Amino acid sequence: MTLTKSNLINAITEANGFPKNQAAETIETLLDILKNTLESGEDILISGFGKFSAKAKKERKGRNPATGEEMMLAPRKVVTFKCSGKLRERMNNPDKMRI
Length: 99
Prior knowledge:
Number of strands: 5
CATH superfamily of the largest domain: IHF-like DNA-binding proteins
CATH class of the largest domain: Few Secondary Structures
């Protein structure tokens, strides 16, 4: 199952007793902070979870799969994620998982 924004809002509402609109505002604020941080080129480090980084990709040669025509792909930024050791440990040892 994919964790959606709606699932997060419901989980916060159930776990903390927040009204749904307050949980939704909290999630939206958090996502805005994360987006703005990555957009500015800064990393996001969440202890026990992992690190999000914005990486610059250089211009490169590509190919249009429909026509086979070669083209140059523009430079761009991508977001990468590296999970923490603690998260990796929990993922690889399901008997230690907490809910």
